[in-house]
Design a protein that fits this description.
The chain has one domain: Purple Acid Phosphatase, chain A, domain 2 (4-Layer Sandwich), CATH 3.60.21.10. The strands form three sheets. The chain has a six-stranded mixed sheet. Strands 3-2-1-12-13 form a five-stranded mixed sheet, with no helix packed on it. A two-stranded antiparallel sheet has the order 10-11. It has eight helices and 13 strands. The protein has helices spanning about 35-50, 70-85, 100-105, 145-150, 175-180, 185-190, 275-280, 285-295, and strands spanning about 10-15, 55-60, 90, 115-120, 125-130, 160-165, 195-200, 210-215, 215-220, 225-230, 240, 245-250, 255-260. It is of the alpha/beta class. One fe (ii) ion binds near residues 19, 21, 94 and 96.
């Protein structure tokens, strides 16, 4: 028997991945990471999870060098999975991406302009803005992008908006990463104030972290490729081969919930006695809490 849950199901479920830093060919990222294998593992877990996803969000640093071959590899790995799940993919650029190659390979348009998009999924609006500034590793938006975003947000969507941007508008502990962060948090805060934006999904930091921009929660997905050692002295920037992860974002009518999912499948066991679980499943819903929650 399958539990349906005592709370209403989320209206939308999003798989939020970031910083895959794909390298075409046989090279290893930083000499350590097989980026193709890492993305494959994530996509396998997403498909095996049994979740009914509404969208796959990739929040930038899709590739390490921004070369066409790496974007082709991304499509090769991603498109069959998205097709089987029947979901749209929202892919925004990061500082390691190159706008021209990204636009040509992923969007089929020959331009160096940012590919900012709006995707409607059953009343939930997903907007992604490319915060990568050509020639730099820190992030920002042009005047035109701010205007475009304000215009898109002028009318609310039925279930509100999720904003996707590579550089998170929050302050991370690393002084080095602060030199490479989003350049005008106040301006973005002003544009989003009073809008229907319910959450911001970001990456770039290679660590799972959370913050707020005004009253809007910011969910930063840890890297699919490698992770920053958040336990190291803050003046260092140390890569770790693990614990890579992605975020399961559940949008409810009244809240947005983020859950970190490790890329690696670690050892598992039934954390609740299986006979108890089976027994509780046979009970009417009104009796389940008492049956499972009462201490014995
Ligand atoms: Fe990155
Ligand atoms: Fe980045």
């Amino acid at each position: 028997m399958v539990f349906t849950g005592s709370r209403p199901a989320p209206t939308h479920v999003i798989a939020h991945l970031s910083d895959m830093h794909l390298i075409a060919g046989d090279g290893l990222l930083h000499g350590h990471i097989d980026t193709r294998a890492q993305l494959r593992k994530v996509l396998e877990r997403i498909e095996q999870s049994g979740e009914r996803f509404d969208a796959l969000v990739l929040s930038g640093d899709l590739t390490e060098f921004g070369d066409p071959e790496a974007y082709a590899l991304l499509r090769e790995l991603l498109e069959p999975v998205a097709a089987r799940l029947g979901v749209p993919t929202i892919m925004t650029g990061g500082n390691h991406d190159e706008r021209g190659a990204l636009a040509r390979e992923l969007y089929g348009v020959d331009t160096d302009e940012p590919q900012d998009t709006v995707t409607m999924v059953r009343g939930l609006r997903l907007i992604d803005v490319d915060t990568a500034l050509p020639g730099f590793h820190h992030g920002g938006l042009s005047d035109a992008q701010y205007d475009w975003l304000a215009n898109e947000l002028a009318a609310p969507a039925e279930h509100g908006t999720i904003l996707v941007m590579h550089h998170p508008p929050v302050t991370y502990r690393s002084p080095l990463m602060q030199l490479l962060d989003f350049d005008d948090v106040e301006r973005l805060r002003a544009v989003l104030e009073g809008s229907d934006v319910r959450a911001i999904l970001s990456g770039h930091l290679h660590v799972t972290t959370f913050g707020t921009l005004g009253t809007i929660p910011v969910f930063v997905a840890g890297g699919v490729s490698y992770v920053d050692d958040a336990g190291a002295p803050r003046e260092l920037l140390m890569g770790v081969d693990g614990p890579q992860s992605w975020n399961l974002i559940e949008v409810h009518a009244d809240q947005v919930v983020g859950t970190v999912v490790p890329v690696e499948q670690h050892k598992t066991w039934p954390a609740l006695n299986e006979a108890v679980v089976e027994y509780v499943a046979t009970l009417p819903e009104a009796e389940r809490r008492a049956a499972l929650s009462t201490k014995r």
